[in-house]
Amino acid sequence: MKKSKSILFLIDGLSGGGAERVVLTLAEAMVAQGDEVMIASLRRECAYEIPKGVCYLLVEDTYQGPFRRLTEMRRRARALDQALEAAAPGKNFDLVISHLPKTDRIVAASKLSAVAWRCLHCALTVGELGNKRGWKRWRKRQQLLKTYNGKKLITVSMALQEDVRAIGIRPAAMMTIYNPFDVQKIRALAKEPTLFEHEKFLLHVGRFHPQKRHDRLLEAFQQSGYPGKLILLGEGSDEETAMIRAKAEQLGILTRIIFAGFVSNPYSYMRAAEALILSSDYEGLGNVLIEALICGTQVVSTNCPYGPAEILRGELAQGLSELTAPNLAKAICRVLANPMTITDEMLAPFMLAESVKKYHALIRTFLAE
Q1: Which of 13, 77, 242, 264 is the S-S candidate for 109 at Cβ 3.0 to 4.6 Å?
Q2: Residue 22: Cβ within 10 Å count
Q3: Could you report the average pLDDT of every consecutive run of 10 residues in the chain (369 residues)?
Q4: 56, β-bridge pairs
Q5: How far is Cα of residue 256 from the mean position of the Cα atoms in its chain?
Q6: What is the pLDDT of residue 367?
Q7: Topology of domain 6-180+351-367, per CATH?
Q8: Under 8 Å between Cβ of 186 and 291
Q9: Where are the domains positioned within the chain?
Q10: Could you give the CA distance from residue 224 to residue 189 in angstroms, rounded to a whole number?
Q11: What pLDDT was estimated at residue 351?
């Protein structure tokens, strides 16, 4: 009989993002096959339902004293250690995985630092260093080296390994495990109806953030001559939302843009769309591309660092474009005029069972140390 394993996921909250969905998908699959799984969340925010059988531990920081920023990492690391000891006294987890940079910094100051794998969902050069210059950039790079140098790293795309090395990080071990996708569950959810079943529309799924380049998306939508609507699934700051609305109004397309907000089931929208468009400057992998393909929907994406080219291979590569609005518009037209047949073989590297198998391989590696 297979012996169950104990697995701990650590993450900076469970807001409506891709890394959060990855954690919950893995946790649910591992519990289903008999593993003991705990998710330790470092913020109260939780946009998703915790899967049945998963132990959820909230380690919230409520300190509001004068040295809040100065003492944050060590204070929160100590709180994490204490919360885990109280929840699971003396427990040694078979696998510990930290997700997102803020969590990684806290874990680096905790008792888990030596055993935890850090899972990188996005490029550090752009996500952490991209907007830094001079002294601030140097200081942030030193912080990244302190957090990741000599540690065990997981990247969600092969290209992210190059990004890690570009910073000068030398991990103790590093491997790529693609994000997991529960194909059966996604396809079942995709069958649910939307309010736009009889509309012709293109779809963008992602938070309102400069990285996602909604300005490029809107320009490409206009230039493509597509006659239907563009639905935006996602949320952002009031400022970012206002900028997107202003851009759409400037282009004369505001009446054809639908701001649908955050939805817990984006898959029904993906299934109903004629194509999903990704217009980003960079991604860690590009989860929404895989999800749309699972739903049987055509996809178009900028060929941005670091993941889309690993997804859109072979015939699907017709959906890749340069990082300009005119090229993205041409890719939209190209894909709509020549839709590809999407096969399970194209999706095989991203299947949930494949990801779980690789994570269990990490457990064997850890136990052998």
Answers
A1: 77
A2: 25
A3: 83 86 93 95 90 95 86 94 94 94 95 95 88 92 95 94 94 94 94 92 94 96 97 94 96 96 92 97 91 97 92 95 98 96 92 92 70
A4: 39
A5: 28
A6: 58
A7: Rossmann fold (3.40.50)
A8: yes
A9: 6-180+351-367, 183-349
A10: 30
A11: 92
pTM across the whole model: 0.84
Check if the beta carbon of residue 44 is closer than 8 Å to that of residue 67: no
Establish whether domains 6-180+351-367 and 183-349 are of one fold. yes
CATH of the structural domain 183-349, one choice from 3.40.50.2000, 3.30.300.20, 3.40.50.300, 3.30.930.10: 3.40.50.2000
Exposed, middle or buried by CB within 10 Å (0-12, 13-18, 19+), for 62? exposed
Distance, CA of 290 to CA of 154 (rounded, Å)? 19
pLDDT of residue 305: 87
User: Residue 58 corresponds to which tokens in the numbers above?
Assistant: 């909230």
